[in-house]
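hey so i finally got around to running both of the ones u sent me last week. sorry it took forever, my laptop kept dying halfway thru and i had to restart like 3 times lol. anyway pasting them below in the order u listed, first the sequence line then the structure token line for each. didnt double check formatting much so if smth looks off just lmk and ill redo it

first one:
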Amino acid sequence: MAALATSAAAETVLIYGEPGPNRGARAEATQWFADQVAEQSAGDLRLDITWGGALFSERAAVQSLRDGVADLGSVIGVYFPQDLVAYGIADLPLDNPDPWVGMKATDALMRNNEQIQANLAAQNLVYVGTYTTSAVQMGCKGPAVTSVDQLAGKKVRGVGAYGQTFRDLGATLVDMTVYEAYQGLENGLIDCTQTYSYLVAALKFDEVFDSYTFIDWGQVGALGIVMNKSMYDNLSPEQQQVVMTAGEGLADEFGRIIGEANAESIAMLEEAGKEIVSFSDEDRARLTEAAQPYLDDWTARADAAGLDGAALLEEYRGLIAQYSEELESQGYPWDRG
């Protein structure tokens, strides 16, 4: 295991692997999580975060965490459609547009569903907490994509059901990570990239985007923190509780952060005079209809992994409805006073 015990201070140091850079909304939330672990444990636990993929790339995260290259770290579920098939439910193009609602529903499912816990345990993994991308949008070098029909012929970086749906509607799908999209736009390998508003500032997309399209279509929510189970099992019950309590708090904290970060990123584009447009409700309906086969595909893959895909979808939709109702009646937690 990667953890280090420093006996002089009676402190356990957990090594955290982060493929992304130490800037932007998610980095802020990851640091908040680390600070919460240290604070809640009164110095008994500390995270040593290694940023920028120095320990593992986003595509190697699950195997690296399983093998103990790091004790815990960030994973992007879309790169692991089989290993993290259960987590992939949060990437499906459902009626799930609010980031906080999506995170709370995903966290409750991943944390409490026994099928999912067993599936991860068999891979020497434990779920800790979740982020989200917020709603799926599109940034382009050149004119904005203003409708579904204009996807035809565009070279688009897209992932998961969203990217596959863009392809089905006529785009040329290009396989690259979001961290490679800046260079891809700059050198013409892609015309547009699937993105999320907060990444504009985090990845400096304002330097390469000429236009930005609000698609407001679902969100990629299989983005979170996973821990090596052997290391987790070696922690005391009190230490385990600290990690899980901090992880559960991420949905509220990142919900607050990402709302502010989305607004700041859009302000950057507006101030730079970028073209900003929005898809119509009719175009979003066309996207949702075109994406239905990928919900069916996920259900089949979940079943093949020994999960009950239909039951998980039903539970997840129920959680989305539950937290949507809470949001409507009580507002966001950070605004409740």
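and the second one:
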Amino acid sequence: MFNNKKILFFSVKLFSIENKIENKLSSLGAIVDYYDERPSNSILVKGLIRLKRDLYKRRIDNYYRKILYEIKDKEYDFLFLIKGEVIPEFFLKKFCESNPSAKRIFYTWDSFNNNNNSKKILKYFQSKITFDSYDAKQFGLDLQPLFFFDSFKGIKKINNFKHHLLFIGTAHSDRYILANKIVDWCNDKELSSYTFFYLQGRIVYFFKRIFDSTFKYFDYKKLSFKSLTEQDIIDLYKDSNVILDINHPSQKGLTMRTLEAVGARKKIITTNPEIKKYIFYNENNILVIDRNNIVLNEDFFTGPYQDIPEQIYDALSIEGWLKSIFFKNQIEKWIVE
């Protein structure tokens, strides 16, 4: 499928996920040229791009002109863009002119509510895909959930785990409040738990303390300003029974954490009711809670995990995800209406 296919790949940097996607494409035989979608990943630049893009327009345009110069003598089979937060229209126009036969693929793992630029550039792509079922309906996009990496496949079921409950996530919205309520419940039931809250930096923390009311509840000592490595996460999953997922209130798409739990064959407690619509939903494996009225069930922690069909499991892997996006959906419909 991918053998000797030339792919121009753009993605913002996010916990090295973009590097793992590039490496997987290469391992499948593709020839990949990867570029960060942002000219810089400093906190200031990220803020400018989101809030005052016009102030950074010259730098963005120069960055993409440089890329055009670097690829001017190359012919690609695919343009693969994830998110589309930054890439300017003039670049896409030029690429279409110089690579008229290339298939152009857009995928987003963010809601369009958080990313205005992506709506402007959809017209340049033949294949338009989102992880969010609401955006898929509203904008006429295909739906494809996120994925898990191969490293999660090797996690074996054990009975002598350290943590009945595990939460790993970036600090935002009401996550800290909800996680603490659930941890308190676990403590009352003598169930062990482990939580890890990540934030991009101390400057971000103090900024959010001023402008985000939910951050006044955060215990500074419980925040980490260094992200976990993939091996750290794998080790924590190995030692845990149930994974807690607290989605952002404004997003409907299934989180990466949810898919990692599926890959590791772990039970999930989630605040995202959308998961009930997906074909792999199983109430024995997935407990959906109301973030405004948390009701937990002790039996959920003790019951066995039930494997999902192998075809669905494989389609949710990184390889299945890439095959669906580039060539053909591995699963015809992810959601049962």
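quick thing i noticed on the 2nd:
The radius of gyration is 21 Å.
anyway thats it, ttyl
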